[in-house]
Amino acid sequence: METQVLTVEDDDSIRTVVKLALEDEGWGVIEADNGEDALTLFRDEGADVVLIDIMLPGMNGFEVCRSIRRTTDVPIIMVTARSDTHDVVAGLEAGADDYLTKPFEPKELSARIRALLRRSRSAGTDAAQMTFGELEVSPEQGVVLLRGDQVHLTKTEFKLLVELASGPGKVFSRETLLEKVWGYDYFGDGRLVDVHVRRLRTKIEPDPADPRYVVTVRGLGYKLVP
Amino acid sequence: MIIAFVIGALMLATLLSTVTYSVTRARLTESREQAALISAQEHAIDINAELDADSDISDLVPAMLDVIVPEGTSQGMLYNSVSQWVDVSVLTENRLDPEFVRTLRAGSAAVMTVEIDEVLHHVVGLPIPRLQANASYIQAVKLTEVEDDLNSLTLTLVGASAITAMLGMGFGVWVSKRLLAPVHRISEAAGLVADGDLSTRLKSAGDPDLDQLIMSFNGMTGSLQERIERDSRFASDVSHELRSPLMTLTGSVAVLERRRDDMPERAQLALDLLSTDIKRFKLLVEDLLEISRFDVGAVQLDIEEVMFGEFVRQAIGAAVARERDVPIIHGEGIDELFVELDKRRIAQVIRNLSENADKYAGGVTQIRLEHDGDDVRIELEDEGPGVPVDERELIFERFARGSEGGRRGSGTGVGLGLSLVTEHLRLHGGTVSVADRVDGLLGARFIISLPGVVVE
Fold first, then answer.
1. Half-sphere exposure for B185 (CA within 13 Å, toward CB)
2. Which architecture characterizes domain B2-151 according to CATH?
3. Nearest CA in chain B to A23
4. Which end of chain A is more exposed for a tag (fewer CB within 10 A), N or C?
5. Which CATH class is domain B303-450?
6. Exposed / middle / buried, residue B456 (Cβ in 10 Å: 0-12, 13-18, 19+)
7. Residues of A with Cβ-Cβ distance to B240 under 8 angstroms
8. Which of B69-73, B110-114, B386-390 shows the lowest per-residue confidence on average (mean pLDDT)?
9. Does any CB of chain A come closer than 8 Å to the CB of residue B134?
């Protein structure tokens, strides 16, 4: 079945050119030019990847993202106009897996989408199930249990956890995590890692403010405490 | 401020004390001396009364002994030829001033002061008129009372000065609290605004004069905040207006390029021109937007801790063509050094300098990393023509292209690259400069200086 991308963008020209570029990659594209329509469209037709511009009339991109996140862990990419504002962090905290800054090369967008789809297709390594305290991580099934209850993580959050779990007690630098989980090079945006760690903590930590599992190692990165 | 009050009070108290002491001492001494003189005179008269026309020297001492004197008074008789004392413990002739003795022998009264056994004595000498043989009655009085009085006065005055100083301090503290605290609040608030918190406002102080100042301050901060927010919004709007059509242009060119092979040759040519210039234009817009963000103050540092050597290696690797391998020389202590900086910005700095070297000097040939305490330096050398001394400041100005950069086609950008380098570094408190190569050969050496970035 053809991969379907939902684009939410109010600028007609941009929306059109993105559609053209994505269709060139062999993906199907459904479009919305505002938040409400986007949610309706997503609910009725579904999508494999969602692209949301944060600047939308009416309901803004963050709200759309949060709404979608409430019911599904579909990969979401936020499109921002600037990379150094709080928009990036806000977008990530709202549930986005990655972000792109306008103007971007369609090639870059395709690469990001492919990376996210890869994450969806293969949930992780073929590592065996691991247990850390009250946390059970099953990479093959893509399942995480906390005290026996399933935790709903996005594919990216899951991939991040699996990566940390591949070396319990080992410190992973932001650069390493960016590369392994997002496929970025040394100059990827460390905030992707930081915000995802925060999101992960709110879902698996008994006290996110005082983490027991995913611990920050100041100046070096993060580690999973077995 | 408080110290000023204390010093002022202390000085005033000391002045008063000194004046009081001096005046009192003078008066006390004077009155005591007066009393001593009168006492001596009285005794002299009494002695005189005991003598008659037939008396001679041998009658003097008995006459003197008949006169009752108070304790602490020593008596003596001074004859022209010899002196004789009754109370032996105190004065002897050699203690008398020659001047004093001369005056007495000349027939006049005389006074002097002498210290005996650390006690001041006031000495009065009066000639006895009834004797043909010259004799003078001498009386020495201890001034201990005066001394004692003065001592207790001194103590009192010192105590009073100390208390005054403390009161001064207390007053100073009070003034500081009541009057200066609001002033401090205002200057603190001004500091907060200067550091960027434009939402700072002051509450009323309940004092009409201060409230006037507070209102002006709040008004000023309010308009400042409005203006900066307006500028920021404008910058943001402009940013959006520029990025959107660029997005469409970039996307359209990408779609066209996919179909390049299906195009007639002339269309392919046009597409290539379009593609190149749009890429250039995009970079230009990015630079302009970045510079305008600096102008508006809408810039933030995103500090991360990185391994210095590794970071520079990655940065130059991303900036130069894959085939080129720029050697990086580590100075002492660089190998294990960690620094805190904004990765994106400093990488941009290295990229801009590298591109500048590519454009004008054939590319960076060597990088040297040094550190000096908490400061680090990145030096990029090339083998180009170098930068003339009189242009070394100019090249970092906006839109400056140096003597080599006249034609548009000679590369990307309009001359913002180096000024952006300056701005990025300034955010870090750092600088950039250009100098000659270390080995003195032809070429330029760009020196990036980042103070205080080393992490312990």
1. 19
2. 2-Layer Sandwich (3.30)
3. B255
4. N
5. alpha beta
6. exposed
7. 55, 81
8. B69-73
9. no
